Amino acid sequence: MSNNIFQKTRVLFAELGLWNASLYGAAYLLRRISSRANIYKYALVAQAVRQEPLLPGRRHRGFTVRQISEAEYDLNWFPRPPAIIHSRYRQGAVCLVAFKDDAAIGCVWLSLGPYLEDEVRCFFVPQPANLAAWDFDVYLDPAYRATRAFACLWDAANAWLCDQGALWTMSRINAFNFRSLRSHQRLGAQQVGTALFICLGICQILLTTVRPYLHISCGDSLPQLVVKAPEHP
User: Fold this and answer.
1) Using CA atoms, how far apart are residues 118 and 131, in angstroms rounded to an integer?
2) pLDDT tens track for 174-220
3) In angstroms, rounded to a whole number, what is the distance separating the alpha carbons of residues 53 and 119?
4) Sorting pLDDT into bands at 50, 70 and 90, what band is 233?
5) Confidence at 163, pLDDT banded by 50, 70, 90
6) Could you give the CA distance from residue 165 to residue 63 in angstroms, rounded to a whole number?
7) Quick one: which of 179, 220, 214 has its CA closest to 197?
8) Quick check: helix, strand or coil at residue 101?
9) How is the chain split among helix, strand and coil, in percent rounded to 5?
10) Spatial distance between the Cα atoms of 152 and 135, rounded to a whole number of angstroms
11) Cα(148)–Cα(221) distance, rounded to whole angstroms?
């Protein structure tokens, strides 16, 4: 048992580095103390919208991706609370769902303006306006993560973004999720900032490398994190 824990700890520090691994450990301890306490660290990334698909059209065979309205959305498809889904649509976000035959196997959400995050209290504001979008909650059923489904889903997202005139899509990635970070980097994502949230009950402390840099609230105050594309510093 002790050897297993030691090996996991070594891997964690090797993947995340000393600082992020220490934050991950602190977040774990906070959650053990209280269900209302946690630490979130995000890598803020920008990715150029692709003009060419990841896969030729015929290799998409077997998978389809459709834009789904709130009326069409089935709450049984993915493990997301109804209130969060309703909030996303109310903000004007768009949901693209990937299907294998008639089964929903994955999704990606896209927003052309500021997005109210549902994990912490803040707005993410992609910039420059009208040229940058926000993508979030990219999900794929574990059974399809080693298939062409992800490329099909991302090709559909890029096609939709191109139609809207977007040149960049921004997102926040869990900085403790090494595999997700690597996956985004392979697609060309560039890190443009970080954001650290320390949540203690109703109080939230934000330390970030983008505006507003520091924000402390113990109520309804919501910071707006301006995430700019690399070519528009």
Assistant:
1) 24
2) 999 988 888 888 888 999 999 999 999 999 999 999 999 999 999 88
3) 31
4) very low
5) very high
6) 25
7) 214
8) coil
9) 30, 35, 35
10) 16
11) 42
Tens digit of each residue's pLDDT (9 = 90 or more) over 92-125 = 999 999 999 899 999 999 999 999 999 999 999 9
Which range has the worst mean pLDDT, 81-85, 132-136, 149-153, 208-212? Answer: 149-153
Q: Which CATH superfamily is domain 7-228 in?
A: Gcn5-related N-acetyltransferase (GNAT) (3.40.630.30)
* Residue 171: other Cβ atoms inside 10 A: 25
pTM, entire model = 0.91
Q: CA 204 to CA 40: how far, in whole Å?
A: 11
Joined tokens for residue 146:
């080693």
Bridge partners, residue 46, by sequence = 170, 190
CB atoms within 10 A of CB 195: 24
Name which of 176, 217, 169 is nearest 194 in CA terms. 176
Distance (Å, whole) CA 61 – CA 83: 34
Q: CA-CA distance, 52 to 50, in Å (whole number)?
A: 5
